[in-house]
UniProtKB/TrEMBL annotation:
Organism listed in the record: Nesidiocoris tenuis
Official protein name in the record: Ufm1-specific protease 2
Domain spans labelled UFSP1/2/DUB catalytic: 372-549
Family according to the record: Belongs to the peptidase C78 family.
Classification via PANTHER family: UFM1-SPECIFIC PROTEASE 2
Pfam families registered for this protein in UniProt: Peptidase_C78 (PF07910), UFSP2_MPN_insect (PF26560)
Gene Ontology MF annotations: deUFMylase activity
Domain annotation UFSP2 N-terminal MPN-like: ranges: 4-126
Keywords: Hydrolase
Superkingdom of source: Eukaryota
């Protein structure tokens, strides 16, 4: 009898092939769930020195289903031994990935490994067939002794059960919580998750960083008794700050929410038990992420109020275990699912929403044989007269700075809010670049001030490069094209009375066939994409726009692409990175170009020796770049990498 055909998620297969190049010979656990009388492999966890696996970070229902032998020669007996841990299927799978990236499969059948077959499941098809159920218990519901009914005896009784899973299940079955969505109580048994999500999907705002068909059903639980026993392993010791669990379920098959919550809560407690490394750390927090490279959501438990090095190592291990590059952050606070954790980066300091990626509907320039390179990732459009500011005529550089800062937020480089115009002015006064009278004034800022603010607020350092004339922008066209191709961050151009943001460049055969995609902070009008496009708030421009402003300073301010694991905590810790760590994990720089305008452009740099004072950057021809770190004086543990 031949083994059953199984399926593998498209992104999982791609990652296995990528791991051959990025890691080389290794083994990995394969994780999946039951699907169409067999299994669907959706994830992997590479063996590492920390002995960390992604198993308990996976949503409930995702279990170990097999082993991948990547570029190696593991013996059949070793493979069979590893497969003994598989319980979800009677036909565990083995994937052999060659050094060339080809994938062959075998299954364990009657104690022997035999050749098997698999089919690749499209990522969109996977997200259309399944959804994630996120169970959340608000913090005020979980505090010991803070009972809805005020019965302290119940709290003591509940705490005693915390080390006994059978008691936990019995307690929850006999006295189940109320399940609510957007404040409305729902039934917990025999519900069809897809139908329930369809009824309430308008309650959650979709994060544009995630696929449109990603469905997360957030369910709040309300208990008539203390639930500290669901937050810790044992009656005393370290505890989760809130209960926050995750399940993966079929959209169309009936489900029991209570049973799902019980199993996911038990997994969360077991995860916490493995994460405890120091009894002095009393609280941990759970965050949920959807790294696009892996194609499904996972939970991560971080310790709270610890040194940044601890959080950095945790994130580094996650990248290593999942086979992800360290070129960009994936597990910093602002990358957590925004509809669950706080506000989206689209919301500014005043609560006003800002449009995201307004250039998406701009048609390409009408040029023949043109190569177009655009900004990568997400940003917010900041322009005149937003957020209650009357900055028409003087606030363009402030707005460009805010747009650039928002890019850092969307890409996970900072969890800090975009600074307001007043906050920008206060920063410049704080570092003694401006007098006290500058706060609340209508004075312009230039690219040098932009550099100072990025350094002070996000620990971004930059250097200034001079371009002699507006026409000189044509000489920079391939530099800009390379920048957008390799790093993809916005470029601030400013000088004199003007500041703009470059979002892309189109290069034709001749220099005159060059167009710049300009985001104009001078726009005044409705916060509507159609109107913005009609009034050229974002559009392609020729070099003539720069020639008109010759004689002014031009600089470019660009955010960075990290060639290293992004440092930042679960909203915790702000210890600076040592020079040794920077050299080991980061390789990038920030560049500004000075003449008519200034472009803030990050470029890769192998010259990474030591930190340089940003206030000296104007005299530097090259400058080691300091990774962007959230610097919140009120919370010294709020960092990025």
């Amino acid at each position: 009898m031949a083994p059953r055909e199984f399926k593998i998620l498209q992104k999982c297969e791609s990652r296995l092939q990528d791991v051959v190049e990025s890691v080389g010979t290794c083994t990995a656990g394969l994780y999946g769930l039951k699907y169409e009388n067999s299994v669907l492999v959706i994830g992997l966890s590479i063996a590492n020195d920390a002995n960390f696996t992604i198993e308990l970070s996976n949503p409930y229902n995702v279990e170990l289903v097999g082993v991948a032998d990547i570029g190696g020669k593991i013996s059949e007996s070793e493979l069979c031994e590893k497969l003994k841990s598989v319980t979800i299927t009677d036909e565990p799978v083995v994937l052999n990935v060659s050094s060339a990236g080809s994938v062959e499969s075998r299954s364990l059948l009657n104690g022997k490994l035999v050749s098997s077959s698999f089919d690749v499941l499209d990522d969109d098809e996977f997200l259309s067939a399944f959804l994630f159920v996120n169970f959340v218990v608000p913090a005020d519901e979980t505090e010991t002794g803070q009972l809805v009914g005020g019965n302290a005896d119940l709290a003591e009784e509940a705490t005693e059960m915390s080390s006994c899973p059978d008691s936990i299940e019995g307690k929850l079955q006999s006295e189940p919580p109320a399940f609510k969505i957007s404040g409305s109580e729902i039934e917990s048994k025999n519900i069809v998750p897809g139908e329930l999500y369809g009824e309430h999907r308008e309650a959650w705002e979709r994060d544009p960083r995630h696929p449109e068909n990603l469905a997360i059903l957030t369910v709040e639980l309300e208990f008539p008794y203390d639930v500290t026993f669901l937050k810790r392993n044992g009656g005393q010791g370290p505890s989760l700050d809130v209960i926050n669990t995750l399940c993966l379920v079929s959209r169309d098959e009936p489900a029991n929410l209570l049973e799902l919550f019980i199993k996911s809560a038990e997994r969360s407690i077991e995860y916490l038990k493995k994460e405890i490394f120091n009894e002095e750390v009393l609280f941990y927090t759970t965050q949920i992420f959807f790294p696009s490279e892996i194609g499904y959501a996972i939970s991560v438990i971080f310790p709270k109020n610890v040194l940044e090095d601890v959080l950095f190592k945790k994130r580094l291990i996650l990248h290593e275990s999942l086979g992800l590059t360290t070129a960009a952050p994936k597990f910093t606070p602002s990358m957590a699912l925004s509809h669950v954790f706080g506000r989206s980066p689209a919301v500014s300091y005043s609560g006003e929403k800002h449009l995201v990626n307004v250039h998406a509907d701009v048609k390409p320039p009408k040029l023949r044989d043109v190569q177009i390179n655009l900004v990568r990732g997400f940003y917010n459009y900041f322009h005149y007269l937003q957020d209650g500011e009357n900055d028409d005529g003087w606030g363009c550089a402030y707005r460009s700075l805010q747009t650039i800062f928002s890019w850092f937020s969307w890409q996970g480089y900072t969890s800090l809010q975009v600074p307001s115009i007043r906050e920008i002015q206060e920063i410049l006064v704080k570092i003694k670049d401006k007098p006290e009278s500058f706060i609340g004034s209508k004075q312009w800022i230039g690219s040098q001030e932009l550099c100072y603010v990025l350094d002070e607020k996000a620990n971004v350092m930059c250097r200034i490069v001079h371009v002699p004339s507006g026409k000189g922008m044509l000489e920079e066209r391939f530099t800009l094209a390379s920048h957008f191709e390799e790093q993809g961050t916005p470029v601030m151009v400013g000088g004199g009375q003007y500041a703009y943001t470059i979002l892309g460049i189109a290069c034709g055969d001749s220099p005159n066939d060059t167009r710049f995609l300009i985001l104009d902070p001078h726009y005044v009008g409705p916060h509507d994409v159609k109107t913005i496009l009609r009034k050229n708030g974002v559009c392609w421009k020729s070099v003539d726009m720069f020639k008109k402003a010759e004689g002014h300073t031009r600089r470019t301010a660009q955010p960075v692409t990290a060639q290293g694991c992004h440092r930042g905590g679960a909203g915790l810790g702000d210890d600076r990175i040592s020079s040794a760590e920077k050299r080991q994990f980061f390789d990038y720089s920030m560049v500004t170009i000075d003449s008519f305008q200034s472009m803030l452009i990050p470029t890769s740099s192998s010259a990474f020796n030591s930190a340089v004072d940003v206030h000296q950057c104007k005299q530097q021809s090259t400058l080691p770049f300091c990774p962007p770190i959230g610097n919140n004086n009120n919370n010294p543990s709020e960092t990025l990498y």
